[in-house]
Design goal:
With about 150 residues, the chain is α+β, with helices and mostly antiparallel strands. Helix content is about 15%, strand content about 25%. It has one domain (about 10-90, about 100-140).
Amino acid sequence: MKKRKRPQYVVLEEYHGEPVGEEGSPEEKETAIGFNTRADKFVIDTQEGTIMRWLLRHPHFELQRAIARREGRGLKIIHVIGTLPIGCLLLKGNPRNTSSHARVLGQLPRAEKPPSEAVRRSLEGEKSAGRRGETYGTPEDGDGAIL
């Protein structure tokens, strides 16, 4: 009897601190933002690691769905879809001085509640894995926050 293979990808509806990764070439990693004139929230769909990590840390981000790839005994998130209040979105009149996608992310607001133990451990693990110096554009350094 053949052993059944587990699916390589799974869909998650809740985030419990799983690490974030990327898959595919730079041209395949997209971020899309959408909203309508009556919306009080906008939808963001991304496959970019920096943006996924930022969204998953944002206290107002509501995860609708995440796609994770099985790696060993764990999962690594490679695609996130969710919503943020429309007030978090700002389109600037002048271009930034860099085209780095990480620079479209503003400073995160303080969380109203502390992250769960699993999320805290995951974030600490990401810092020790070399992401400690990652920065995001902020209004204070002349880059208006887009998200």
